[in-house]
């Protein structure tokens, strides 16, 4: 388990970025220490890395949120929209 600062360092983001993603319902923080500190798992680290990678590929935060909720349906609809945008730009 990681505290927010440790997770941020491993994922190369700031703790504020993690808090922002939590507010955007892209990450959870269900586990806390007795002192109230957030604790994160390896799954949380992988999720955060996925978000960062998707951002680097040009996905919007809204599209990433949709992918995290329903990866099959949302991913296809997002890619379909990107394909339409690109074909329109080529014409």
Automatic annotation (TrEMBL):
<dbReference type="GO" id="GO:0003677">
    <property type="term" value="F:DNA binding"/>
</dbReference>
<dbReference type="GO" id="GO:0003700">
    <property type="term" value="F:DNA-binding transcription factor activity"/>
</dbReference>
<keyword id="KW-0238">DNA-binding</keyword>
<feature type="domain" description="HTH merR-type">
    <location>
        <begin position="1"/>
        <end position="70"/>
    </location>
</feature>
<dbReference type="InterPro" id="IPR047057">
    <property type="entry name" value="MerR_fam"/>
</dbReference>
<dbReference type="InterPro" id="IPR009061">
    <property type="entry name" value="DNA-bd_dom_put_sf"/>
</dbReference>
<dbReference type="Pfam" id="PF13411">
    <property type="entry name" value="MerR_1"/>
</dbReference>
<dbReference type="InterPro" id="IPR000551">
    <property type="entry name" value="MerR-type_HTH_dom"/>
</dbReference>
<protein>
    <submittedName>
        <fullName>Zinc-responsive transcriptional regulator</fullName>
    </submittedName>
</protein>
